[in-house]
Design goal:
Shape: globular
Strand order of the largest sheet: 1-2
Number of strands: 4
Strand content: 5-15%
DNA sequence: CCGATGACTTCTC
DNA sequence: GGAGAAGCCATCG
């Protein structure tokens, strides 16, 4: 496991319940700003990582659930978020800027 | 090292 | 506003 993945997972696991974060923010926080795509790539691996990584709390810059189809079912991601109090309309997070969360200080 | 891949981002049309 | 293309960077084989 590369440091990149480790940091990504560390940040994602720290996202509070009912909050969400973006790929770009995570990548930027880690230091690899342009590697937002790689963050998503790391999320794909999150299935084989323990403990569970709340990848459903990570969305793209528009608050759109672009990675929903990578869960079991295309509706699972939205269901998980809604069960945590996040409102979603048309695959887009409502009050996105309001519940948006960013890592503070050191995560490791 | 190189080419291919990707759950991104931004610009253009 | 949707679709296509280019830029970006880390990972994998």
């Amino acid at each position: 496991m590369s440091d990149f993945y480790t940091k990504v997972y560390a940040v994602v696991r720290k996202i509070p319940k009912g909050k969400i974060c973006t790929y770009g923010d995570i990548a930027e926080y880690i230091g690899t700003k342009g590697a937002a795509r790689t963050v998503g790539y790391a999320m794909n691996y999150s299935h084989q990582v323990t403990p569970f990584v709340p990848a459903h709390r990570v969305v793209n810059r528009n608050g759109l659930l672009t990675g929903k189809q990578h869960f079991g079912t295309p509706t699972l991601m939205q269901q998980l978020l809604e069960s945590e109090g996040v409102k979603i309309i048309n695959n887009q997070i409502q009050d996105f800027e309001k519940i948006r969360w960013k890592p503070k200080g050191k995560i490791l």
